[in-house]
């Protein structure tokens, strides 16, 4: 997988040297099989349009084991806002809360907020799927990573009205539960004021 499309440091802490790095790659280069399958499903449903409608998809079509790793966002273009319509149960376990009805700015690390260069902004602006690799690391080691496939949906055929997001999260220490990994990582990130 080539990681050269766009890369930047999302957040950095001088206290413990923790960085959250974000890199965007071509979604067709996704190394996760269920991401590849989801992209193919989305492409078939769009039938030549830039995106399918929300009501044309069934979360169950992504597979019973994948549904807990899905979030669906309702998006507004101007001003850019987003709310989670659906938040998978595995995401609740990993991130320590059910964020259904919440904004991505409510999700740890809250310091990051929402930007036009982030996941939602890219969907609205570019109207194509994106694939983000987030790495949590310090100068000594990589703690873990999250790979997120985001695909646009459009109820009006003109603008992105929803996004479907499918996560793959791994801790570099396999004996450590993911919830403990994120608890440690996100506890070092100060809350947004």
CATH homologous superfamily identity: PAS domain
The assigned CATH architecture is 2-Layer Sandwich
Estimate the strand proportion: 25-35%
**Fraction of residues in helix:** 10-25%
Strand order of the largest sheet: 1-2-5-6-7-3-4
**Overall average residue pLDDT:** 79
Given as residue ranges, the uncertain stretches (5+ residues, pLDDT < 50) are 1-15, 185-193
CATH topology: Beta-Lactamase
Give the strand tally. Answer: 7
CATH class: Alpha Beta
Which H/E pattern describes the elements?
A: EEHEEHHEEEH
Radius of gyration: 16 Å
What shape does the CA trace take?
Answer: globular
Measure the end-to-end span. 37 Å
Biggest sheet record: 7 strands, antiparallel
Helix and strand composition category: alpha+beta
How many domain modules?
1
Secondary structure tally, helices: 4
Topology summary:
Blueprint: E1 6-12, E2 19-25, H1 33-46, E3 70-76, E4 81-87, H2 89-95, H3 119-126, E5 130-137, E6 142-153, E7 162-171, H4 178-187
Antiparallel strand pairs: 1-2, 2-5, 3-4, 3-7, 5-6, 6-7
Characterize this entry briefly.
The protein has 193 residues and is an alpha+beta fold. The protein has one domain (6-176): Beta-Lactamase. It has helices spanning 33-46, 89-95, 119-126, 178-187, and strands at residues 6-12, 19-25, 70-76, 81-87, 130-137, 142-153, 162-171.
